[in-house]
Amino acid sequence: MLFQKISFTTLLTTILFFLISGCSDISNDDSFMEPDMFKLGEFTDNGLTIAAYAERPLSVGYNSIYLDLHRSGERLNSAEIEMIPMMHMEQHSHASPFEKPARVRDDETGLFTGWAIFTMPGGMMGSWELQLEISAVNGSGMPSAGIIEIEVEQSNRVKTFMSDSEERYVLTWILPDEPAVGMNELKVALHKRESMMSFPPVLNAEFEFEPWMPSMDHGSSNNVSPEHVENGFYAGSVNFNMTGDWELRFDIEAGGRKLGHHVFELEF
Predict the structure, then answer these.
(1) What pLDDT was estimated at residue 34?
(2) Strands, DSSP E only, in 46-201?
(3) Of 15, 65, 74, 175, which sits 20 to 30 A from 262 (CA to CA)?
(4) pLDDT tens per residue across span 109-131
(5) What is the mean pLDDT of residues 85-108?
(6) In the chain, helix, strand, coil percent, each to 5?
(7) How far apart are CA 198 and CA 248, in angstroms?
(8) CA-to-CA distance for 37 and 112, rounded, in angstroms?
(9) Chain mean position to CA 35
């Protein structure tokens, strides 16, 4: 009888422990290893260590940004994260389109996930950094803030342009990431530059799309012009019927105003 009472008490204590642990904003999972990603950098402030990662070295265009948060050797499972990609140039500084990381860890990567669209490379023109500020959702611990300096390589994935009405926009080609012969998913993003720090998504754009092969002077069939999916991202399809040099040609309108003709060049 005494054994049964002890076993019941032990069982009840175990259940309560797991219930409490499941609701905690902190995890002491010792089995966690540093992700197999490209590490951008880290800093520690007020006892909180913030590490930033990407799938590969950053380049002009759309980049997923992943953060890991540790305090006193324990992982934070939820946090309020502010993130701004900032370019410092000789005469001024400016941000770029971005989405701050979610408040909870992503199920697939186990990290806090956001994204940034870098509009120009770093180097002679200026330098990029991620400005980060983190506070725990439950209010525990002091807020932490810091900067991670990052390198951004050149690519042809972004077009910045001014419309006839002198409004500035950022057009980003996201997919296909690795073009192949046949049907490919096509994804682009369109943002308006309201100021050096504000780039709201354009939700009402209309795209006319055509892939073209300059060397052969022909296009392809069964393409689907991008349509708005969410938050300024547009999805369609592009059909490459052979390898070689191609152009992705876009004619854009928004709110009845023409935003011009824009071309991305690629070869595979």
Answers:
(1) 87
(2) 48-54, 61-71, 74-76, 80-89, 93-94, 98-99, 112-118, 126-135, 144-150, 158-162, 168-175, 182-193
(3) 65
(4) 999 999 999 999 999 999 999 99
(5) 97
(6) 10, 55, 40
(7) 27
(8) 14
(9) 17
Q: Which domain holds residue 127?
A: 26-150
14 by Cβ neighbours in 10 Å (0-12 / 13-18 / 19+) ranks as exposed
Choosing from 132, 150, 168, the residue where a domain stops is 150
| Global pTM exceeds 0.85 | yes
pLDDT confidence of 73, banded at 50, 70, 90? confident
For residues 263 and 166, membership in a common domain is answered with yes
CATH number at residue 188: 2.60.40.10
Where is the domain boundary, 150, 172, 202?
A: 150
CA dist 173 and 176 (Å) reads 8
- The CA distance from 204 to 213, in Å, is 29
Residues 90 and 43 in one domain: yes
Same domain? For 184 and 227 the reply is: yes
Q: Which two tokens stand for residue 166?
A: 């002198």
Measuring CA to CA, how many Å separate 34 from each of 31, 43, 75, 238, 252? 10, 15, 12, 37, 43
